[in-house]
Amino acid sequence: MMALDLSQNKHADVSYEEKERLFEEVKADERWHHVLYGCYECGICVASCPSARFYDFSPRVIAQAVAREDVDLIYTLMNDSIWDCSQCFSCDRCPRQNSPGQIITIMREVAVRNGLQTAKDALEGYGRIIYKIMSTGSQVSPDMLQPNAFPDWGTHVHEIAENLEEWRRALPPETLHTTETGWKVDQKTIIELYLIWHMTGVMELIEGVDEGLFMILVDVMEERLEEAGYDDVTFD
Amino acid sequence: MIHLPVVKAADRKFEADPDKAPKEDLREELFQLEKEGELEVIRVPDNYIELKTKYGRIKKIPVEKTWHHKSCGQCGHIPGYSTSIFWLNRQFGLDYYDPTDQTSCTAWNYYASATSNPEAQAAVAIRNFAAAHEVGYYPLIHCGTSFGHYKEVRHALVHQHELRRKVRKIMERLGKKLVVPEEIVHYSEWVLAMKDRIAERQVIDMSHITATVHPACHYHKLIEEDAIYDSEIYGAQRTAIVTGTLKALGINVGDYSTWFDCCGFGFRHILVSRDFSRSFSVQRKIEVMKEEVDPDIVVTHDTGCVTTLDQSQFAGRAHNKKVGIPVMSDSQIAALAMGAHPYKVLQLHWHNTDNKPFLTKLGLDVDKLWSEFQAEVDLIKAGKKEYMTWEDADK
To answer: Where in chain B are the domains?
Structure first.
């Protein structure tokens, strides 16, 4: 079992004021008042938590740390435990109506928004997924089923990769003949998605965790936006 | 000795009273916001079936005029899942819409990496809803996570004025309205609502089949008051989804002690920390099912659950774990019961765990069926046919 490192040596330590600032960002989220009401310390959240069984992870620790406003511990958790959470929301069973899973969602957003190194580490290897979802609006696609990406899924992945084109054509729905996206998506739809990314500042989040990926995405998006007549939309 | 009146658990019935529901009915607030000009509510089309949710409220499930909000994971990696949903609609001659003006909900990425924010997530959702409304169809959500996430988005939009303002502004730029469906409907609710019509047309006997059900976390744990419950299924103590459908098909549903546990998907984990997903899926779900029920099949109703429970068994086998149970969606089982082709429609060759013993137990000639599919692929490979059509699939 991987141990939760509370020694604070694993990540760069920062001033108490900086930790407080990050926690204030968590508390400023509009969802904050609907995800934490206190804690009975009953442990129901831990009992139903999948991550607690395989990591030294506890949704109860998360709820208690934020309830007590223990900013040192919150900073440690923000640099470690939050990335173990499965985001299944089994912990919503909480009799106090807390949602440790949603507290973590908010903490993750703050970690990403502030470009914490541990967030970058947690998302290492995940860049190709971000590229796919941001550029196509589809999280996974048929052509991602490659043996080197899923070696633990066995030999059938080889068979799929070898027959991909023909097997996709052997799907009766006309929208599913694609290989680079899950289904056929209109050009207009993709442009609207890019405009959403532009108007909501999402690309800045990506720049904070992976500058190289950000630059590649900007190239792709700005070119397509320009083709569609949106010369004025840039992500700089 | 004091004699207390003891009611046997098996004899007790819990009838939910909507008037005593501990949580708000969001739909009332939606209609109020519509009156105030804050948003527009997309109404469920007239042809609908009523099901009950956790606290006994009625949820309208549209039968047709459905706009199929597809799942990136289903369409990308287990495409027979969505194909079966469409096949069922076609068998009943229902009017449905398979859009190309649709993005995924992008929530898989949001839960995995947090490289998004609530307004972007809400704008993606409303853009899709608006696309459905513009063509006159009603959104039917294929993915469990999209379903749960869209319920969260709807909840946030109702309660957060500032979020509504921001999303409305984004929609204006896109030339769209802020529209929100009266009901967020998952396809498995549609399958459940249609269960008696499906059973009427069942051509394959499944009464000798035992299944275990895995309910998707994001279906019944996010905005739990909106999940379907039935006093005849688990005494209304758990969601009736999938189990109600299987029982209507005559399948014996076995219970097991880790029913509530998630599948191990983990969003980030299934892509970059799969050791966790594999271990949890095999040790907490598949092995427990095997030891306590030994089912012929696991049936679930979500993208991530089918993927994780199915794909993880390969590594489990290498470690001599008690694995080897095929995994399918309720839509695939319902289609199979009605005579759909296991490869042309269910597309079971995209699944991992061996499902041939299950198909054989149903009396199907697996080799013959595979050769029928392979003949279609050979025609495509030889350039004699561009695609396999719906007509080919039903030959």
So the answer is: 18-187, 203-371
